[in-house]
Every structure is written in C-alpha cells, then in structure tokens.
Amino acid sequence: MKMYQQAISLMERRRGFHLITEEILNALPQIRDIQIGMCQVFIQHTSASLTINENADPTVRVDFEMFFNKAVPENDPDYEHDYEGSDDMPAHLKAAMLGSSVSIPIRNGRLALGTWQGIYLCEHRNYGGQRKLVITAWGE
Length: 140
Known about the structure:
Order of helices and strands: EEHEEHHEEEE
Strand content: 35-45%
Oligomer: single chain
Family: Belongs to the UPF0047 family.
CATH class: Mainly Beta
Distance between the termini: 5 Å
Number of helices: 3
InterPro entries: UPF0047_YjbQ-like (IPR001602), YjbQ-like_sf (IPR035917)
Protein name: Secondary thiamine-phosphate synthase
CATH superfamily: YjbQ-like
Number of domains: 1
Helix content: 10-25%
Strand order of the largest sheet: 1-8-3-5-6
C-alpha cells in the first residue's frame, strides 16, 4: 500500500466556482504511482467548499453561482452571524450544502474522473483569501 499526502494553499480567487483539477494533480504527482486507489481532497475552511461537476463549459460554473445566490441570499435579516459581512453566513450555508471534501477513485495512475468532470473550488466569499487543501492519495 502506498500513501501520499500534500497540503497546499490555493491562490486567492474571486467569488464563484473555479476548476482546480490541474492544481490537485500538480500538487500530488505521486498519483501516477498508484494503479488502483483513492484520492481525497479536503478544504480546511467553513466558507468555501469543493464539488465535482462539468469541466468544459464555463457557463455551468456561472449558473452554479447564480443558483446558490438565489437559494441562499445575502442580507437575510434573520441571520444572527453577520459581523464578518453580508456574504459570511450565506458562505457557511453554501459550504455546508456542498461539502468540505471530494473522493475520486484512482485507476491506472490517473484520477478516474468522467470525460466532462472536474474538481471545483467553490469560493463563497467576496474576499475569501487563500484556501488551504489537504490532498491524500492511497492505493497499490
């Protein structure tokens, strides 16, 4: 059994949904050494999240942002947690909806993503700053 782990900081990104698949692969090239296994990507934040979805058409990522902004609006007067700005509590809710990790099978030294799948960083804050990830891969 081989096990690899790498912690990385992603560059600061604007609010929205951003493809980070290549950054994951560049951070942990040892994935190539695994024929069958798993890769887990975990984000160490509560106001950003991860998901897997469409990697070809950028309008999908625009529509994701539009949907989540409608589903979890800012400036709701019922929010009590509002001292970090109007985007903070909605960011926590969006992150809870999407999740803090993704797991992808490794097959023949590659992430076994579908043809049109990519890993998204879901940045829910206007100024979220650098985001930290822990990437762990294991297998044979």
